[in-house]
Amino acid sequence: MKRPVVIGLIALLLASAPSVSVAQAKANQLFGAKSTGSPHKPQAIGSYAKGCGAGLVELPETGPTWQAMRLSRNRNWGHPDAIAFIQRLSAFAAGQRGWQGLYIGDISQPRGGPMLSGHQSHQIGLDIDVWMLPPKSLRLNRSQRENISSISVRSQDQRSVNGNWTPQHAAILKQAARDPSVDRLFVTAPVKIELCKTARRSDRDWMQKIRPLYGHNYHFHVRLKCPKGNRGCATQTPSVAELSKGGNGCDDTLRWWVTDYLNPPKTKPQTPAKPAPQKRNSRNYVMADLPQACQTVLAAP
Ligand SMILES: [Zn+2]
């Protein structure tokens, strides 16, 4: 091999070395360290639980009809679609008796990506947590926003809503579900059971967007659709087969959450099953697990 070729090869190896190490670096540590958005055109990259966000923008800490909570987390960043949605829904909420607007929990980190703590999703700037606590004031200071807690709308036995639940909660959830930019909403099962009971039969088209999930009694979770024209954003397929057939989910799959889910039926002891393959936790993702474009988002100044 001629000398220049060898030197060329070594140079190539050296040049590629840093990106190899980035590829194996823990994604949540890298994304968790970013304090500002990336200077790109806004784009959701990858999927809700495995991706990042380019050009995310900060939700103003206080707006006319909202406040962002837990500012120390710096998770009030989202795709512009998410910011616009929060403006719309909070303006609606402000028209509800007892509600000044909305308290907004986590959206995403400044560049999205996996987090050091908390959520598996919220990675691409399109997931928004909204507190169940009706805002009495939109003048909370930073420390109040760290210390105030939301309220649970679920009973102790986890089977029904409690006295904190109001018709205004129902109206806000319905409004959110009818918003064309919303893909689905996650709520504790008793909330959906209550909505199934109270919504008029002729007015339930929005109900299929309301999905029961564990937790979600202190906040509800809004998941927006991939923005129009946003290639590289992975649309989530229906998670409940029945729902994809046009049902509204007010059925046995819903009752399961307040029966067998809480009290698994006893079965005869069987020979130990093979351990289920470990589900990969977004906390362990390395950069190579995320779409390639996330390295560009991360590397930008
Ligand atoms: Zn959430």
TrEMBL record:
Residues 1-23 form the signal peptide. Disulfide bonds join 196-250, 226-233. Pfam families: Peptidase_M74. Keywords: Disulfide bond, Hydrolase, Metal-binding, Metalloprotease, Periplasm, Protease, Signal, Zinc. Residues 261-280 are annotated as: Disordered. GO terms for cellular component: outer membrane-bounded periplasmic space. It comes from Meridianimarinicoccus aquatilis. Gene3D superfamilies: 3.30.1380.10. GO terms for molecular function: metal ion binding; metallopeptidase activity; serine-type endopeptidase activity. Residues 264-279 have a biased composition (Low complexity). GO terms for biological process: proteolysis. This is Penicillin-insensitive murein endopeptidase.
